[in-house]
Amino acid sequence: MLKLHPSEFILPKDTTIGDDACGYSIIDNTLLVSVLCDGVGSAAHGGTAARQCVKFFLDQFKNRPRAWDIPRTMKTFTRHINSLLFKESMTQYGKIELLTTLCLAIIEGENLYTLNLGDSRIYLLKKNGEFIQLSDDHTMDDECLSHVLTSACGLSENIDPIIYTTPIAIGDTLVLCSDGVYTLLKESAFMDLIQKGLGASTIIHSTVQTCKPKNRDDMSLQIFRIESLDPLHSIKNIALPIPDRLDEGQIIDDYILISPMMEHRRIWKVLKDTKYCVMKFPLSDDEDSINPFVHEAWHAKQISHKAFPYAWVPESRSMRYYLMELVEGINLKEYLKNRTLSIDNVIELGKFLYHAEAHLLHLGLVHGDIKPENILVYQRDGEAGVDFKMVDFGSIVQIFSSNSRAGTPTYIAPERFGGSVINESTEIFSIGVTLYWALTAHFPYGEIEPFQTPIFKAPKRPSKLNSNIPPWLDSVIMRSIAISIDQRYRHYSEFFYDLKNPEKVKPYFCASTPLIERSPVTFYKIGFIILLVLEIITFYLYVTK
After folding, report:
1. Which among 62, 233, 345, 414 is placed 20 to 30 Å from 484, CA to CA?
2. DSSP per residue, 349-395
3. Exposed, middle or buried, 310 (CB in 10 Å: 0-12/13-18/19+)?
4. pLDDT category, 289, cuts 50, 70, 90?
5. What pLDDT, in 10s, does the model give residues 306-357?
6. Residue 324's pLDDT is what?
7. SS in 3 state form for 230-272?
C-alpha cells in the first residue's frame, strides 16, 4: 500500500485568489497523482487555466483506461488539456489568454513519473540527502527578453511532452513548487528546510518573512514524504505467462500436475519429488483476473499462522502461480452431511476462528468470507479428534474495506447490506452464523440469495433447535449474530473471552424477548405486585361501600 505524508500550501501575492493552483489524489491506495500549475501572469486568465488544469488531471486519472500505462496516460491527458485551453483561448479571446505552467508527478509502484511545461519545478530529496531537480525550466533569457516561457500548457495547439521515470524508495521526499518559491530560496536553503521535515505552509511563511513584498509572486508548494510503496505493482508487472490449458502429467518447474481440484482447472494437486502441494493459477490474463490474483498471492505469503495452509511464491517461476501446502481434509459443509460436531468441537471451532482472525487483524486484514465451505476439517496426526484450517486467500481484504463483493450473503452482517465497512464486528457475525449452522443445520436469518435485500427479524435461539447447547454458549452465539451493532461483540477479544470463561457469560436476550424469558423472577415479582395492588383496591372498595 502506498503511504505518504502529504503537505501543500498556496499563498497568493495579495489578498486575491491568485494564479497558482495545486492538488493531489491517492487512488486505490496505490497511485499518487500530484498536479501544480502557475497561471501565467501576462495572460488575462492564467489563474483560470491553472485551476482548470489541476481539476482535469485529478478527475481524469480516477477514470483512466486501465490498459494504458502511466507514461501514455500522462502524455494523452496533457495533450488533451493543452488543446482544450488553446482552442478555448482562440474561440473566446482570439489570442492566448488561458496559459499556465504544469508540473505533473505520478507515483506507481517503485517509480516516479514526472512531466513539466514552463518553469514550475519538481525536486526529489533522496533519503541519502541528495537533492535532484527532475524538471527543466522552459524559459528564454537574452538582452531583449527576460524569463519568457518557451513551453506552457495552452501555448500552442500541439505539444509533445517528455516523461521522465525515476526510481524512488521509502524515505525519499517529492517536492513540487512554483517559481514564486524557488526564486526566493537558494537550493541549499530549500533542501535544508525540506530535510528538517517542515510543512509547506511553514516553509512558505518563513520564506516570505525574509523578502520584500515587491519581490515575491504567488507561492505554491507540495511536499510528499514517502512512508511506504505499493509492492504489488512490481509483482503484477513481472513478465510471466499464464497457460491457456493445463493437463494431467504436465510438468511446470519440476512440479507434476496430478489432478485438478476445481472444475475451472486452475487449482491443481501437484507433486515434486515425494511431496504433494497445491498450485494455483489466475483464471485468465486480463486485468480483472491478474489484479485480485496478485493480491491473493501477496496476502497468502504474509500469513504465517497454523490456522491457514502455508503458502509461498517460488523465486524463479516460468509461469504465474503460487503454491501452498496440501491439507487432506474436507470442508465443514461436506463433513457435517454425514456426521455431527460435538459441543466441545464447536467451541474449539469458535476458538480456531478467533485465532485465525486475530492473526489477520495483526496484518491489517480480515478474511471477508467466513463460512463452512472455507473451513477444512481434517484428522489430527496421531491423535483423536479433528482440527481445522481456514482456506480461500482470495477473499481476504484489508480491514475497514467497503468491498461489497466480499463475503456470502447468508453470512454477511445486516449493516454491510447498507454499504458499511468490513470490521471485527461484521466478521464476528459471520463466525456466529457459522457456529449456529454447525450446531443446528439451520441459518438464523434463513438462506439469503445474492442481490437480495434481506429483512432481519429476531432469530430462534440455537438451543431451541438443539437442546444440547448449554445456556452460556447459546448466549455467545446470539450475541455474535445480533442484528444491532450495539448488542453484538465489537472485538474478537470479547468473543474469545466469553468462549474461554463460560461461567462469566452474561445471558443474552433480544429486545423482543418476553420478560418472562429474560427474567422469570422479575416477571413473577411484577405479577405479584400487580395482584397485590388489585387485592388492596378491591378490599378498599368493598370496605367503603
Report:
1. 345
2. HHHHHHHHHHHHHHTTEE-S--SGGGEEEEEPTTSSSEEEEE--GGG
3. middle
4. confident
5. 999 999 999 889 999 999 999 989 999 999 998 888 999 999 999 999 999 9
6. 96
7. CHHHHHHCCCCCCCCCCCCCCEECCEEEEEECCCCCCEEEEEE
- Laid out side by side, the sheet with 102-108 consists of 20-27, 31-38, 102-108, 111-117, 164-167
3-class DSSP state for residue 103?
A: strand
Report the DSSP pairing between strands 139-140 and 365-366: unpaired
**For residue 323, what are the β-bridge partners?**
279, 312
Find the mean pLDDT for residues 403-408. Answer: 74
Domains of the chain: 3-235 (3.60.40.10), 238-325 (3.30.200.20), 330-513 (1.10.510.10)
pLDDT tens-digit profile of 102-119? 999 999 988 999 999 999
> What one-character DSSP code corresponds to residue 100?
B
Which strand ranges, in their side-by-side order, compose the sheet holding 255-260?
251-252, 255-260, 267-272, 275-280, 322-325, 311-312
Rounded to the nearest 10°, the torsion over CA 343, 347, 348, 352 is: 150
Instruction: Tell the residue number behind the cell numbers 485465525, with chain if given.
Output: 356
Residue 145, sorted as left (phi over 0), alpha (psi -120 to 50) or beta, turns out to be beta
Q: How many residues in the chain?
A: 545
Comparing CA positions, the residue from 387, 378, 377, 379 lying closest to residue 348 is 387
**CA–CA distances in Å: residue 228 to residues 203, 231, 313, 540:** 24, 9, 22, 82
Residue 241, φ and ψ in degrees, nearest 5: -75, 155
Owner of C-alpha cell 479433528: 386
Q: Do residues 8 and 200 lie in contact, with contact meaning Cβ atoms separated by under 8 Å?
A: yes
CA end-to-end span of the chain: 86
> Smallest Cα–Cα separation from 375: which of 350, 400, 398?
350
Backbone angles phi, psi at 95, to 5 degrees: -160, 175
